[in-house]
Amino acid sequence: GAVVSQHPSWVICKSGTSVKIECRSLDFQATTMFWYRQFPKQSLMLMATSNEGSKATYEQGVEKDKFLINHASLTLSTLTVTSAHPEDSSFYICSARDGKLEKETQYFGPGTRLLVL
Amino acid sequence: GQQLNQSPQSMFIQEGEDVSMNCTSSSIFNTWLWYKQEPGEGPVLLIALYKAGELTSNGRLTAQFGITRKDSFLNISASIPSDVGIYFCAGQLSTSYDKVIFGPGTSLSVIP
Fold this sequence. Notes:
The complex is a heterodimer. In chain A, 0% of the residues lie in helices and 54% in strands. Chain A is mainly beta.
C-alpha cells in the first residue's frame, strides 16, 4: 500500500519555541494532505486540510496563526507549531490522499509525538 | 458538527472468540472506513466501504455498510492476541475527496 512518512517521530521542546513537522508521501503524489491531533485515549481530531499550492483550510477552533501549514509540493506538507506551549503536547498525525485514484482513501503517517516542557 | 458513535467503548475477550463492534451516525455517509491503531502509531486502514449494503471481508475481518447509510459494523472472527488495539470507524460525507471524520474508537483487549 501507499506509504506516508513523518519526521520527526518525536520531539521535545521548550515552551515558546516553534516546531516543524514534515509529512511526506513516498510513492505517490498527494494533492491533498490532512493534519490531525490526537490526545491520549481520544480519537483523531482533524485540524486542517492542505491542498498543494493553496492555503490550508482549518477546522473550527484551530488557530491558523499558531498551526502553520505549508503544502509546497505534491509529496510534502509541513505543520509548524508556533510558540508552543505545554497544552500543545499531543500526537500529530498526517494523512495523504493519492490524487490519481478517485476511490482511494487516505493513508496515514506514523505520527509525531510532541512534548512541550 | 457531524458525530460518530461507536460501541462498545472497550472489550475484553478470550482468544478465539468472535468480536463485533458497530458505529452509528446521525448523518448520512457515502463512505465508511474502519481503521486499527496500535499504541504510538498512526491508524491503518482495514476495510473501506463505498456502497450501502456492501459487505466486505479482509481475512478474519468483515464489515458492512448499513442500508440507511448511517451505520456500519465490523466483525473479527477467531480473535488472536495481535488483534489488540483501538478500532476506529470513520466516514466521509460526500466523496473520497472529503475529509475523514473519526469515531471515538473501540478498545479491544484479547486475553490469551
